[in-house]
Structure formats: structure tokens, C-alpha cells
Amino acid sequence: MTTETPSPASAPSPASASSTASLSKAETAYRWIRERVADQTYQPGHKLVLAQIALALDTSVVPVREAIRRLEADGLVTFERNVGARVAMVDQGSYAQSMDTVAILEGAAVAQAKDHLGAADLDAAEEINDRMRVLLTDFEPSEFTRLNHEFHEALYRRCPNERLCTLVGLEWDRLSHLRDSTFSFVPERALESVEEHSRIVALIRARASAQEIERAVREHRSATLHCYQNLQMTTASTTEPRKDKS
Q: DSSP secondary-structure letter at 157?
């Protein structure tokens, strides 16, 4: 096993450096690594070498180590003694839990955002949804998923509760890590998803109650999970070996 040897440039900042600057470097490292986990530049099982990341960010290993700890708490990274930090592996249970979590958190976030979404925001969301609708004729799951994320972000990002908004974004990152595109498994869900998007925007334009909007968003997110789970159950039942009745 190789030992990481920090270069002189990776030495901790002098004590006189402001705590704000230190926190800024840790936040930068956190976001930098998180983005690479989300877009699968760092795939499940990838070893995160602190010295290499510090070199790429032109900083010391101290803020990188802090970022790794945060990512471990988020469930995106695992740490094994004598092995180090690795991008967390994928499992079906985590995917279902993240989908459930997104349904709850995003429903609440969009409900809170409803009074802060202007006509321009809703027009932008509908424009994204129109591009998704066009893709239905020549379906491309990855691009559809990317636009799907853009659509949802256009609505929940106006949530005045910054902590809630951050949590929604984090769970979206976890989903990107756990599954590149759910729609590649259940393409038939894509049309339903686009229609539900239109309904959600219409509810916000009509100034529906926060409860009605939250329920619509939550049911929309849950429907995709249920569709995927039904597929998994069907696949499992058809591939299960038959018992010999002789």
C-alpha cells in the first residue's frame, strides 16, 4: 500500500489565516468531489487519494479531508481502515430510500417556493418540459434525465428555506450516483412524467394550495420509483429458476 506524502505546497495554512478562508477551501473541495461523484467521473468504488485531490485544487489535504468527512456523512463516500476513502457502492435499498427522500423533501420545497416563482420561472420550466416532450419521439434516456433534473431544479431552487433546498440537491446527487438514468429501465414512464410536469406547473400558475402542490410533486416522484420497483419484481419473477416438480 502506498503512503501519501504531502508536498510542501500541501502543508496546512498558517495559523494566522482566517477561518473563513479555511472553510471556503473545504466547501470548494466538498463541491468539487461531489460533482464528480454525481456525474460519475468518480464511479462507485473509486479510491479518493487526498494528496491528488489537494494538488488538483491547489490546496492542502486538510480541507480535502474535511470534505471527505462530509461526503461520508452524506453517504456518498465510505472509509475503510488501511484502505482509505472510496466512492460508495450502489445498492437497490439506497436507491429506493433516496427516491422516497426526494419525494418528501422536494414536495415540501416546491410547496414553499410557490409564492416565489414568477411567470419567467414557470415559462422556463415549461420550456424545459417541451424539450423533454420532443425527446419522446427519439428517446435518449440520459438527455431526458438531465432535462428532468433541470425542470425540477427550476421549481425547487426558489424555496426560501436554504437548508431544505440544499438537502434536495444533495439527494439528487445521490440519485445520480446510484442510477445513471431510471428512464433507461422504464422508458414508458417518460410520457407520464412529462404530463405530470405540466400539471404541476398548472397548479402553481393557478395558485393552488401548498398542500395540493406538495402532494402532486410527491406523487410524481413516487410514481417513478413504483414503476421501477414493479419492473424489478417482474424481472425477478421471470428469471427465478423453476422448481422441479417431478
A: T
Closest of 167, 180, 159, 161 to residue 73, by C-alpha: 167
Residues forming beta bridges with residue 86, ordered by sequence position: 47, 78
Distance in angstroms (rounded) separating the CA atoms of residues 90 and 163: 26
Q: Write down the pLDDT at residue 91.
A: 63
Residue labelled with grid coordinates 464511479: 43
* Backbone φ and ψ of 85, nearest 5°: -90, 135
> How far is Cα of residue 63 from the mean position of the Cα atoms in its chain?
23
The DSSP secondary-structure symbol of 58 reads T
Contact 105, 152 (CB under 8 A): no
Report residue 88: phi and psi, to 5°. Answer: -60, 145
Strands 77-80 and 47-48: unpaired
Residue 87: strand, helix, or coil: strand
Tell me if the pTM is above 0.90.
no
- 79 pLDDT band (50/70/90 cuts)? confident
Task: Describe the crossing of helices 162-178 and 19-38 by its angle, rounded to 10 degrees.
Answer: 40
The runs of H, that is alpha helices, within 114-209 are 119-135, 141-156, 162-178, 189-205
Residue 239 scores a pLDDT above 60:
no
Q: How many C-beta atoms surround the C-beta of residue 50 within 10 A? A: 21
